[in-house]
Amino acid sequence: MTDTQNAFDPLAITVFAQGVAMIAEEMGTRLERAAVSPNIRERRDASCAVFDAAGRMIAQAAHIPVHLGAMPESVAVVRARTPAVGDVFLLNDPAHGGSHLPDLTMVEVIGHPVEVERIIGYVAVRAHHADVGGMSPGSMPFGATELVQEGLIIPPVRLERAGESQTDVLALVLANVRTPSERLGDLRAQRAACAAGRDAWRAMVARHGDDWCNAATDALLDYTERRARAHLASLDGVRGHCADVLEGDGVTDGTIAVVAHVQVENGTLFIDLTGSSGAVRGNVNAPIAVARAASLFALRVLLDRDDIPVNEGLARVISLTVPDDCVANAKRPSAVAAGNVELSQRLTDVILQALGDGLASADQDAAALPAQGQGTMNNITIGAPGWTFYETLGGGQGASARAHGPSGVHVGMSNTRNTPVESLEWAYPLRVREYALRRGSGGDGARRGGDGVVRQYEPLVPVVLTLLTERRAVAPRGVHGGDAGRCGINRRDNEILPAKGRWQVSSGVRITIETPGGGGHGAPSQDSA
User: Fold this and answer.
1) Of 34, 441, 464, 506, whose CB is crowded by the most CB atoms within 10 A?
2) Res 402 pLDDT > 80
3) What CA–CA distance (Å, rounded) separates 17 from 311?
4) Helix axes 210-233, 180-208, angle to 10 degrees
């Protein structure tokens, strides 16, 4: 064993991994403190990550799974644009490293502290902006059939070139949104977060040296891959299958098939989405980066270990197959606003259940894998001239063999907080008339599924309401004899609304969202009740 290899035993690797992870966490803290919109400042609908000069993700903060699993593609497309030190890129194009249009990703190119023209890494910040234009306030439109209807499409463009601001690019972006001052404030917050990551990574390289940091990165990624493959090797031969549906795209009739076949072989997790629906007219399609993010999340749940770092090493043990014509492989001009939030949830549902069924068939321990959670992000957008409000709502998590499912949490690909009532009512002409757990909505079982929530809004002015929700007709499944969770319900006063739609709503009308509960685990008994 060489001296270099000796320098990176598991303890040294862990210290390095935690150090880089803290860079990403500090970026997130800077973003949250500087952001203007409640969606980023309070709800924390944003993610941060650090990459090396080769574009490999070294560390990410514990932010949004659907963001983080897809961000490596954003850095890859920036690297393809011949970047230079000091360049700062902005993008949201799903065909070029984006997910859906409200998620604006900022990538900064980092230079060496001494050899200033040499690139030593990248930092990336992805944040969901409450409006980027398009056919309805909030840029999460119902009924969109083309990407151009959903907002301003931004391919990788330079906001700064070698440290010099490109003010014409920024002016173009701000001219195409409904709330330019809020967007400018949030973009400045993203810029501050990138600067924090840049300075911290540059300081680490200055402290340890470029060669040491490169070797440490290699060791960290290899270590993560070894740990993941070792765990998968113990599950060799596991095979599973699961089919489920999205409840429609809001444009065409009928459900949309989402299918996953999984297999563990030779330390690799194979995931095949063959059998899923082809691309659809409505906007529940998603780019393949979202499918990769869902696969990575499922792997993290399967590993069930907090001490395995999250970086490119995990992606190396996944083999993903997605048909060319697939709802999870959207191509221009497909609309994708709801795919990032709703299809991503269903993908995790089917991948995790396929793994759980495969483990059970092979008499393997599936304790870490829960029943289906609420399976939706419950997207609600409310807007009027001069302002837009967007949030997602928590619900019930599925129970597992270890414990009852938690209640009122963001499940699966979402990891945001709620918008505090005080912040919402201060920022917008809205009132929250009720916010509570939806008692009894979790599925019964030896372990009960978590309960959803009830949140009721009252606009004080006429507004446009858009809902993109799921699990309003097909309930989250229980496992091993556990009952399904209850479906969600959307209401306008006493009128039940469909899962997806856009409506003009008068002031004083009550909008109530009851989110789904999680599935139960194990057959119910008198004691469990």
Assistant:
1) 441
2) yes
3) 9
4) 100
- Which contiguous run of DSSP H or E holds residue 165? strand 164-165
CA distance 86 to 24: 19
CA–CA dist 224, 234 (Å, integer) = 16
CA 449 to chain centre: 22
Burial class (CB in 10 A: 0-12, 13-18, 19+), 33: exposed
Letter for the amino acid at 137?
P
- 3-class DSSP assignment, residue 503: strand
Give counts: helices (H), strands (E), the chain.
12, 20
Q: Which amino acid is at 226?
A: R
- For the beta carbon of residue 155, count every other beta carbon within 10 angstroms: 15
Q: What is the Cα 435 distance to its own chain's centre?
A: 24
Is 5 within 8 Å of 223 (Cβ atoms)?
Answer: no
Q: Which residue type occupies 325?
A: D
Distance CA 339, CA 429 (A): 29
* Residue where the block lists tokens 């549902």: 349
pLDDT tens per residue, range 70-101: 789 999 999 999 999 999 999 999 988 888 99
CA distance 181 to 173: 11
Q: Which of 145-159, 421-435, 515-529 has the lowest mean pLDDT?
A: 515-529
The closest alpha carbon to 60, from 481, 498, 492, 415, belongs to: 415
Measure the N-to-C terminal CA separation of the chain; round to a whole number of Å.
58
Residue found under tokens 């150090």: 19
| H runs (alpha helix) in 327-418 | 344-361
Listed in sequence order, the residues at least 6 apart from 19 whose beta carbon sits closer than 8 Å to its beta carbon are 204
At 3 the pLDDT is 46
- HSE-up (13 A, CA, CB side) for residue 105: 32
Average pLDDT, the chain: 93
Say which amino acid occupies 241. H
Q: Minimal CA–CA distance to 313: which of 398, 440, 227? A: 227
Distance of alpha carbon 389 from alpha carbon 167, whole angstroms:
27
Sequence-distant (≥ 6) Cβ neighbours of residue 277 within 8 angstroms: 256, 257, 258, 326, 327
Q: Where are the domains of the chain?
A: 3-223, 370-529
Q: What sign for the dihedral angle of Cα 224, 229, 235, 238?
A: positive
CA distance 454 to 489: 9
| 353 pLDDT above the threshold of 90 | yes
Residue ranges of E strands in 323-401: 379-384, 387-391
Residue with tokens 């009852």: 404
